[in-house]
Amino acid sequence: MEPIEKIEFTEEVIRDLFGYEDAEGEPVERLKAFYFKNKAYKQVLADLPLRLLVGHKGVGKSALFRVAMEEQRKSGNLAILIKPDDIADIGEKHDNILLSINKWKYGLTSIIAEKVLRAFGVEDDSYKSKIIKTGMKVFTIIGDTAKPFFRDKVDALPAKIALMEQFINSKKIVVYLDDLDRGWQNKKEGIIMISALLNAIRDLAYQNPGLSFKVSLRSDVYAAVRLEDESADKFSGNVIWQAYSLHEIFVMLIMRVQTFLGKSFDEKVLMNTQQKMLSQELKSIMVTEFEGNGLWNKVPIHQMLLTLIRKRPRDLVKLCTLAARKASEDESNIITSKHFQAVFEEFSLGVISDTVVEFKSELTDIKRLIFGMKPNKQAARTADSFIYTTAELKTKINNINQSGSFKFANGRTASSQEIIQFLYKINFLTARKVLEDGTIQRKYFEENNYLSSKSVDFGYDWEVHVAYRWALQPDNLDDLLKNYRPSEIL
User: Fold this and answer.
1) For residues 354 and 483, is the Cβ–Cβ distance under 8 A?
2) CB 294 within 8 A of CB 481
3) 94 close to 68: Cβ distance less than 8 angstroms
4) 339 and 332 Cβ atoms separated by less than 8 Å
5) Phi-psi bin for 438: left (phi > 0), alpha (psi -120 to 50), beta?
6) Is pLDDT at 431 greater than 80 in this prediction?
7) How far apart are CA 385 and CA 246, in angstroms?
8) What digits encode the pLDDT tens for the residues 382-405?
9) Whether the Cβ atoms of residue 435 and residue 377 lie closer than 8 Å to each other
10) How many CA atoms are closer than 13 Å to the CA of 380, on its beta-carbon side?
């Protein structure tokens, strides 16, 4: 592929260049080309009965699963994917934990057997009658149902024969369950449903040596189950938190661009290269310095981009895609500072919308809480209108509470300290400290979830993440960046 010297930001080019916000839409070969395998990737692929991948929306759980499945299949391993549509019948009515566990065990055994048999090219529903008879022995069910096919190999494609022989020799199936918490609600039945699923998977894995499960869950779903389910300690040791550092996210952007431009790269070299040097790899598509006001004048482009996103690859895709569309409107071959500035408010509104959708199952009135954090007119004129001490933040929350207390989905009223913990967990707030040399250190929940503890003061203030600010203060857009110091520690 010849390197591309000049870019026209058509919708197709933008999509090829920055990718999809969700991994499901990304062609798997393209995804593999720029996918960054962090430590969570290796932990998920470990040959263990259960791996539970937990993280916020937009941190790449589905992407990790797609790449892992593709690599396992290329290696000849039998990997199957179970999605929400597959479990539609199982997902109805979960009000008794023991009955729900049995329902999941039967349903998952049936789905796994059907998907494996179809992978072999075997269309035979007799496996259903064997589920109870065999005590949900997955390998026995599949083997007995497919025996005639194994023996005769009638009309079988070579690839399917090879897959069957691999299965016979290895007696190994890897099952990926992704996005099963779609539409989940933080109520008793929802908690029972997820808890029963995890217990059923644990039972099936131990009943069927060689059968392993990889499950993805949103962080809010796992937190709710962990809090309410007494048996959660049985699977908590299998939890892997999916989170990227800002540097890793920036390297992923460089890898995307290099792949699009037809250039080769070494992932390890990129990881060990300073961000300012990496920014030069973007000069064919965007400016390498952001020309903003005040503290943002001549800021390196990496510093602007990484300060604005919430440690989620999806945020960076969204921001760059919106700016590229503005460049297209201007018929520009380069994304400039004005193109980024033109989309900050739209980006911010999108971040709030994503946050509300993700966490309304935990705090039903989350939208009122977020917009209630808008500074009053007097505070909006100051440089620190979005910065609070813990005491100031509690006062702010108590003022919002005057129009009605906030309740979690289980009906319990949230205290002001619990609201702070919630806002920190969802990345609306970051912990902030000014260091001795004058630089600002910002901490995310994924880096230290104890900073919002009510019993210990670690010396941090609280700051509304800049990604939310344009939507909260649209009448004062020009001052937002001018009064916000970009992060030096990325």
Assistant:
1) no
2) yes
3) no
4) yes
5) left
6) yes
7) 25
8) 557 899 999 999 999 999 999 999
9) no
10) 15
